[in-house]
Amino acid sequence: MRFLPVPPALLRGWLAGACLLLVQAGAAGAAQLVVRVEGVDEPLKAAVLAAVEAAQYGKRDVTEAQARRLLQRADAQAARALEPYGYFSAQARGTLDQSGPAYTLVLHVSAGEPTRVARLDIRIDADARDQREVRDALTAFAPAQGQVLDQAAYERSKAALQAALAASGYLDAQLSTHRIEVTRATRSAAIELEWQAGPRYRFGPTRFEGAQFPTALLDRYIPWREGDFYTQRQLLAFQQRLIDSDYYAMVQVDPAGDEASAGSVPIHVQLAPAKRTLYTGGVFVGTDTGPGVRGGLQRRWVNSRGHKLAADVLAALWLKTAATQYTIPLAGPDNHTWSFGVKYRDEDTDTASSRTFALAATDSRLWHGWTRTLGLKFLTGDFKVANLAGNTTLLYPEVVLARKHADEPLFVRDGWSLTLAARAAPEQLLSSTRFVQLGADAKWIHALGERSRFIARGSLGTTWTADFNRLPPELRFFAGGDRSIRGYPYQSIGPPLPAALVPLAQAQCAARPGRSCQDLVIGGKHLAVLSAEYEYYFKPNWGIAGFVDSGDAFTDAGSYRQKTGVGLGLRWRSPVGMVRVDLGVPVRDREHHGVQLHIVIGPDL
Q1: CA gap 385, 352 in Å, rounded
Q2: Which string of b and e fits 483-496 if b means at least 16 CB within 10 Å?
Q3: How far is residue 255's CA from residue 235's CA, in Å, rounded to a whole number?
Q4: Which of the four pLDDT bands, split at 50, 70 and 90, describes residue 24?
Q5: What is the pTM of this model?
């Protein structure tokens, strides 16, 4: 029998066709594999999906043979995935279905009864156990006795205890014993941990690198004395004080553990000076001030003693100011400073106008968590309130206590602020009149879920004075405006001009057509304002708000007339800070009508 020779080109074509048929036959039986877990909730479901090999094929085609091999391994993989969560008797049964365009592997998982911690034995040297950070870590240790054995929580708690020992000065602490014994028959576990704490280190010498000041000046920021026991809490406080000084663009404070000796650890501080002179400026618009421009200069340090100088100028439609302040940081760990300032203020509103010159000397420091400021102020100038002219000269001491807390500075989800102020002037002390004034401002912000916030705000004030008419507008109470009762113009709420004084103001009122003397307010001795606001963010940086503001500025309890404004607003978390645009209207007020626009740009607290 003779075989005819086959041309090589034709033979290659037959072979390629056969291979293509084989590939197509294999592809015809291939499909995507979908894994579904039933019987358990998160985080157990996620643990199963992460451990089961079949879940890794979600974006690839598999043949039926591959799918069945993955199914055979899935049961054991799913059961083992739950062991770190304390479920050592878990069972899983998988089924494979190809009723649709893909293979569906369904894992029916039964977690069973969890294993709980029957015994928790943590041994630490007595001296180390008495330290606050270590006590807190021991109290928070999880899983505690009676809780489900969770190995991830166990590892976190173990690391937290190690960190607490280091933070308390036990830099050589070693975990000598770490054991978990599980008894499957009784579904119980015993945890045994033991630390050898070693010596407790003390603060050694502090070295500065990159500083532009003598070491003696920087030493005042150190909250410990050399030889005190080392704590990370003190180290972080030191770092924060250097940051708050505003001298440095970079601050890094570290214990030099490799140089520790004789129970003492040196502290190494790396610094990078900030830009010495900072210039600011820009255009702005405010519904209480009108459009305007502002500019400023800040000299972060004037000399080798760290003195500071700041100056700023503001020119708006209804407000013009020029101010300068010289600040002297003092020794001590409490941010103690002396400041001396000069300020000129020219304000003109529908209610009042004033041109005043002020000198101030203040002493500020941290005091039991508060910023406490003691000041002596001299104020002199001319003013008009409700078109009645006056002038004043006052010299008075002032005390201000301020405190705030925020979970984050740019967008507060939980935080509050409180400012208390008291000032008084005896008539004998170069003052036109004697007075005593107390004031309080508070704000509270609380998150309601992921997208909402509730904001409450309040202001209270009271004044005792021998001659109220000699007080300038700055020391009288008014309500209305962006940060008071929205829906009303700035400083438009207060006691009206008394009828007996209307004839005295007729000439000035005539210069302001469209505004009768009876509509003007003179400011009050007392203030009470409350506000409630709800914000909802439909986008990460965009939200809407609804608010109710209510209160009054008044002369006495009998003259209190509550004013209420309600409205809606838009919120924008802009790159330059929170922008708030509100539209407010008065409620049941025959004297004020219409919609009032309010725009505020700045931090929450």
Answers
A1: 4
A2: bbbbbbbbbbbbbb
A3: 9
A4: very low
A5: 0.72
Least confident of 34-43, 120-129, 485-494: 34-43
Q: Is there a single domain that holds both residue 466 and residue 481? A: yes
pLDDT of residue 35: 81
Question: Rounded to whole angstroms, how far apart are CA atoms 23 and 197?
Answer: 66
Give the integer Cα–Cα distance in Å for 555 and 280.
41
Q: What whole-number distance in Å separates Cα of residue 555 and Cα of residue 528?
A: 11
The secondary structure of 359-397 as a DSSP string is: EEEEEEEEETTEEEEEEEEEEEEEEEETTEEEEEEEEEE
Pair 277, 299: CB distance under 8 Å: yes
Strands 542-554 and 563-574: antiparallel
Give the C-alpha separation, 84 to 150, whole Å: 6
The per-residue b/e assignment along 35-61, b for 16 or more CB within 10 angstroms, e otherwise, is: bebebbeeebbebbbebbebbebeeee
The domain in which residue 314 lies consists of 276-329
pLDDT in tens, 222-250: 888 899 999 999 999 899 889 988 899 99
360 within a domain of the structure (yes/no): no
Q: How far apart are CA 83 and CA 112, in angstroms?
A: 11
Q: Are residues 207 and 146 in the same domain?
A: no
**Averaged confidence pLDDT in the chain:** 86
Give the CATH number of the domain where residue 160 resides.
3.10.20.310
Cα gap 237→242, rounded to integer Å: 9
First to last CA, the chain: 102
What's the confidence (pLDDT) of residue 28? 44
Ordered DSSP codes for 64-79: HHHHHHHHHHHHHHHH
* CA–CA separation, 186 and 83 (whole Å): 15
pLDDT at 7: 52
